[in-house]
Design a protein that fits this description.
Layout: E1 2-3, E2 22-29, H1 33-44, E3 49-52, E4 64-67, E5 70-73, E6 78-79, H2 84-93, E7 97-99, E8 105-109, E9 115-118, H3 127-147, H4 158-162, H5 166-173, H6 177-192, H7 201-210, H8 214-217, H9 220-223, E10 226-228, H10 233-241, E11 248-249, E12 254-259, E13 267-271, E14 275-283, E15 294-296, H11 301-308, E16 310-312, E17 315-322, H12 326-329, E18 332-337, E19 345-348, E20 357-364, H13 365-372, H14 376-391, E21 400-404, E22 418-420, H15 424-428, E23 439-441, H16 454-479
Parallel strand pairs: 2-3, 2-14, 3-11, 8-18, 12-15, 14-23
Antiparallel strand pairs: 1-2, 4-5, 6-10, 7-10, 8-9, 12-13, 13-14, 16-22, 17-20, 17-21, 18-19, 19-20
C-alpha cells in the first residue's frame, strides 16, 4: 500500500487523484464476509488491497453483541451441510461449530390456533394437506433441479415463471390453502422475507436451487443445522485479523467513485476518512446500497434500472433468554411453526455451553410492518404471547429480550438479502455481475450456491477476487 498520488499503474487522471491518501491495486468496499474474503484472496496473490467499511465493525449482516449479559447473534448465524465454502474456511481457521438443539417434539399451530406436538419431518396438518405439501415440495424440487442456481434467467421457462407471483404459482398447484400457507413459511417468511405475492415463482426456484433443493429448505434439521462457537461474526473478525495490518478502514463510508476516462482501469474512491486510487474496485455490499454512492461518470442505464428492481426483505429477529431452557423439561425441542402465527418460526437458540435457554423467533414481511408501527412495549407483549402459544406461559417472562431490526440500520436497510421485483430476475439476472469499467460486484445477494447466506458471500468474494487478480496479471503481462 502506497501513500500519496499516482504510481503510473492507474489510468485515473492525475489531477483527479492528486489528493489521494493511498494508491492500491484493488479497493474493496464493504468488510462483510464477501469483502474480507476478496481481500484475503487478493493479498494471497501479492496485491495491495484496502477495505473501506461504513460501519464501526466488520461482519456486515453477521453481528454478535452482548445484551444485558447475554450473548446474542443479531444477524446471520446458521451453517448447513451444503455450505462447503464456509465449512472449509471454518476448518482452515480452526473454528468450531455446535449443533442446534432439536431433541423432543416440535410444535405446530394451525390456522385456527390449535396446537399440535409432533415428531418427524412434516407438520400434522391433516392427511390431505400433508399429501398436498409433499406434492408441492416435489414439484419445486423438480423445478430447482431442472433450472439450477447458476443461470435461471436462461431457462426456456424463465419468463413464464418470472412473470407470475409465487402466490399465483402455488394456487395453480393446489386448492388446499393450508398447504400453500405452510409452504410459504419457508420461502416467503423464512427466506425471502417478502409476501409470496411480492416475488416471482422463478425467484422462489432460485432460492430452492441455491440450497440444493426445496426439500432442504423445509428441513430445519438441514438448513438450520449448526452454529459457530463464538458467533458467525467471529468468522469475519478472524478473516480481518489475518489481513495485513492497516488493510481495513472502519467508519469509512464511500461517498463517490470516479472512474478513469478510459472506463477500463482505475478509479478514485472518496470516503469519509480516506481517498484511494485503485486499479480495480470490488463493491462487496448488497445492491440496495449501491445508490448510496455517487458514480462519476454515472453507471450505465442497465445498472441504474437493474438496481431499482432489487430490494431487501423485512424481518424482526426476536431473542428471548430464560434462566433455564424450560421447554426441554416438557419434552419439547423449542422448534415451532405456524403460518398464521405472528412468529411463524421459533427455535431453540441456546448458546454453546450456556446453562440458560434462548429462543429465537421471526416476524416477517407484512407482520413485521404491523409490529414496527407499534410502541416497543406493545410489540414485545404481542411477540412474547406468540412464543407462549408454542411453548407455554413461561415464555412470557424472559430475563433478556431483544429485537434485531436491520431495516433501521443505515448500512443494511432490510434483511436477510435483496431479491428482484416481479419480472426482474429473467430481465436483468444475466447482467447482475457484469463489471462496469474497473468496478466489480460481490455479495451473497448475487450468489448461485449459498444465495443469501454467508457461504454465498464467501464464494462471491473469492471468485470475484480471482477474476480481478487474473485481469491485473494479464494487464501486467501485456505491459511487460
Amino acid at each position: 500500500m502506497q501513500a500519496g498520488g499516482q504510481t503510473g499503474q492507474s489510468a485515473v487522471d492525475a489531477d483527479v487523484a492528486s489528493d489521494a491518501d493511498l494508491t492500491v491495486d484493488v479497493a474493496v468496499v464493504g468488510a462483510g464476509p464477501a469483502g474480507l474474503m476478496a481481500a484475503r484472496t487478493l493479498q494471497s496473490r501479492g496485491l495491495d488491497v484496502v477495505v473501506l467499511e461504513a460501519r464501526d465493525r466488520v461482519g456486515g449482516r453477521t453481528w454478535s453483541r452482548e445484551i444485558d449479559g447475554a450473548f446474542l447473534e443479531i444477524g446471520g448465524q446458521w451453517v448447513s451441510p451444503d455450505q462447503t465454502e464456509l465449512l472449509g474456511l471454518l476448518e482452515e481457521l480452526g473454528m468450531q461449530t455446535f449443533p442446534r438443539y432439536r431433541e423432543g417434539a416440535s410444535v405446530y399451530l394451525d390456522a385456527e390456533g390449535t396446537r399440535y406436538e409432533y415428531t418427524g419431518d412434516m407438520f400434522p396438518a391433516g392427511e390431505q394437506t400433508e399429501a398436498e405439501m409433499r406434492r408441492i415440495i416435489a414439484a419445486l424440487d423438480d423445478l430447482a433441479a431442472e433450472i439450477g442456481p447458476h443461470q435461471p434467467w436462461a431457462h426456456p421457462r424463465a419468463r413464464e415463471l418470472d412473470t407470475i407471483t409465487f402466490t399465483e404459482w402455488l394456487r395453480a398447484q393446489s386448492d388446499d390453502a393450508a398447504a400453500r400457507e405452510n409452504i410459504g413459511i419457508f420461502l416467503a417468511g423464512g427466506m425471502l422475507t417478502k409476501p409470496a405475492h411480492a416475488f416471482s415463482a422463478l425467484q422462489a426456484v432460485l432460492m430452492a436451487a441455491s440450497a440444493g433443493g426445496f426439500s432442504h429448505l423445509v428441513d430445519e434439521d438441514f438448513i438450520l443445522d449448526r452454529r459457530v462457537v463464538g458467533g458467525m461474526q467471529s468468522v469475519s473478525e478472524a478473516l480481518a485479523d489475518r489481513l495485513i495490518p492497516g488493510t481495513v478502514h472502519l467508519d469509512s463510508p464511500v461517498r463517490r467513485i470516479t472512474r478513469s476516462a478510459g472506463d477500463s482501469e482505475g478509479a478514485v474512491l472518496v470516503s469519509d476518512t480516506v481517498t484511494v486510487v485503485a486499479r480495480k474496485v470490488i463493491l462487496a455490499v448488497p445492491p440496495n446500497l449501491y445508490s448510496r454512492i455517487s458514480f462519476d461518470p454515472p453507471l450505465p442505464w442497465l445498472q441504474q434500472q437493474m438496481h431499482q428492481h432489487q430490494s431487501m426483505g423485512l424481518v424482526i429477529k426476536v431473542h428471548a433468554v430464560y434462566e433455564t431452557p424450560f421447554w426441554r423439561e416438557k419434552g419439547l425441542s423449542g422448534t415451532g411453526f405456524g403460518a398464521a402465527e405472528l412468529c411463524q418460526e421459533v427455535y431453540d437458540n441456546t448458546n454453546y455451553g450456556d446453562t440458560r435457554g434462548t429462543l429465537v423467533g421471526f416476524v416477517s414481511d407484512e407482520s413485521a410492518d404491523e409490529m414496527l408501527r407499534l410502541a416497543p412495549e406493545e410489540r414485545r407483549r404481542l411477540i412474547l404471547e406468540s412464543l407462549a402459544r408454542y411453548l407455554g406461559e413461561e415464555a412470557l417472562s424472559p430475563s433478556v429480550y431483544f429485537e434485531s431490526d436491520f431495516a433501521s440500520e443505515e448500512w443494511t436497510r432490510g434483511a436477510y438479502a435483496s431479491s428482484y421485483s416481479l419480472g426482474g430476475l429473467h430481465r436483468y439476472g444475466a447482467d447482475q455481475s457484469t463489471p462496469v469499467g474497473p468496478i466489480h460486484w460481490a455479495c451473497s445477494d448475487l450468489a448461485a450456491e449459498g444465495y443469501q447466506h454467508v457461504d454465498g458471500a464467501l464464494r462471491q468474494g473469492r471468485e470475484t477476487a480471482e477474476t480481478v487478480a487474473g485481469l491485473l496479471s494479464s494487464a501486467a503481462q501485456e505491459q511487460g
